[in-house]
Amino acid sequence: MDRTILHCDLNNFYASVECLYNPDIRDKPVAVCGSQSTRHGIVLAKNYIAKKYGVITGEPAWEAKRKCPGLVTVSPNYLLYLRFSTNAINIYRRYTDLIEPFGIDECWLDVTDSIRLFGSGSDIAYKIKGQIKEELGVTASVGVSYNKIFAKLGSDLKKPDAVTEITSRNFKDTLWPLPVRELMYVGKSTEAMLKKAGIYTIGNLACTPPAFLIRHLGKWGESLWVFANGYDDLSVSKADTGPLIKGIGNSLTTPRDLTCNEDAKILFYVLSESVALRLRKNNLKGKTVQITIRDSNMVSIERQGQLKLHTFISSEIAEKAMEIFAYSWNWSNNIRLLGVRVTDLVSADSYVQLSFFNDDKRAKKQLLEQSIDKIRSRFGYYSVQRALLIKDSNLNANPAEDNVIHPVSYIR
Fold it and tell me: Cα–Cα distance between 292 and 306 in angstroms, integer?
């Protein structure tokens, strides 16, 4: 029997919440952006009015304002967005406990066992969409299908405030003509490689022999072929079976281009201190460090590596980030943005393997950083600073004010 999977996507989430709380801007083009005082002003979300002017997520605020001179920009309020996200999940829980967040504004739901109580997948989708609109004041698009990948495609096909059903009978007519970039997990670099091989649509991908894709993309090519043909059998994770937060990360667009390792080192320490602070606040430690690099031509890469032990110590995160950076970057271009993210999280209270040699030093580092947290909470973020960060005050930003928070997964 086919499963019944929903993918619920809160439309233009950040911007929709801001317009809900500020009626004066509802009929105007609106974009939620980072700090406007420096180059951190990247568009995080926009409403549909702004979208009509060509404003896109991820572009600098100054460029968005050039396209749309009347654009209203507002700063993000992540705690408010998290509250709305939690309320949406509570609505989903009325229909199933198989809920898997995909960022703060999207969730998969497996309602296979719920259809006897609440009707078909489309019936449930319309009920959820209506309750979100009535109770939260924002809209959602819902995709209905028999697997996660097609449910996600369905929610993307028709927006806002819509339900789209992709079945085993209609997916070829509906999805195969779409550009291959519309398929989940096909990014810019993968799209470029596929186009170079003459694969332009999802249908082209589905009809390409897996062996050919493996030669060009490795094992991942076969996975994309499985997705394009609707063979995806990935399960929807059950709520409350994983950590509250799957990853914590910050990125900063720099007030000037970075041109050397010393510049990068300063920013990596700024970001790592912010990430480590948020890990400690959530009583978490992480083992995998990921970095994001965007150059002056707006080309981005992501790399990652593992630490020997789980940590919330900023220096260990920063040193690992610099190690990954050294292997990944040759300074062929200057850098416009850096990001640090820590994943593979566990509770900070969980048991760890001890060492005879370094644990005393690590314990002292942990106590030191926790003491610094208390000082900063009382006297301000800049009351205690690393000497390294004083070298360039322009790069020494306060991430609590200027950061762009990477999407993370929440399970309540």
Answer: 15
pTM of the model: 0.66
Confidence of residue 53 (pLDDT cuts 50, 70, 90): very high
Examine the domain organization and report whether 14 and 158 are in the same domain.
Answer: yes
Q: 150-168, pLDDT tens digit by residue? A: 999 999 999 999 999 999 9
For residue 183, give the nearest of 225, 236, 214, 146 by alpha carbon: 225
The H or E element that residue 227 is part of is helix 219-228
Write out the H or E segment, with its range, that includes residue 360: helix 359-379
Question: One of 106, 165, 273, 316 is an active-site residue; which one?
Answer: 106
Establish whether 106 is a catalytic residue. Answer: yes
Compute the distance between CA of residue 159 and CA of residue 10 in angstroms, rounded to an integer: 10
347-371 pLDDT per residue, tens: 777 655 555 555 667 778 888 888 8
Q: Do 376 and 292 share a domain, yes or no? A: yes
Q: Are residues 392 and 258 in the same domain?
A: yes
| Number of domains the chain contains | 3
Supply the range of the domain harboring residue 202: 172-228
